[in-house]
Amino acid sequence: MEDITNDSTVVAMDSEMAELVRGIIIPELDPFDPSEANAVLEEAQRGNAAAQYIVGMALESLQPPRKNDARNWYMLAAQKGYAPAKEKLESLRLQ
Fold first, then answer.
1. Residue 79 to residues 7, 42, 53, 62, 86, Cα–Cα distance (Å)
2. SS3 for 3?
3. For a tag on the chain, would you pick the N or C end, based on fewer CB atoms within 10 A?
């Protein structure tokens, strides 16, 4: 298991979660090219806010949704000032 730390938030990316994220079709990616999904996941782990947001969206779209995991990724992106992640967190608070 790999810990991704940003300020006070730690997101554990276990192999199961990594496989789930890689297996999700993200609209911006070619669904037949797993290397693109891997690249997004790696960027998220390195701290890229946009990639963290995409990972959060992917986890939230699972059935059943992994909302807590998704929220952690949104928080990481929001801490970097990524506006879509801030908006998503606010919408989750209102639900």
1. 8, 18, 11, 24, 8
2. strand
3. C
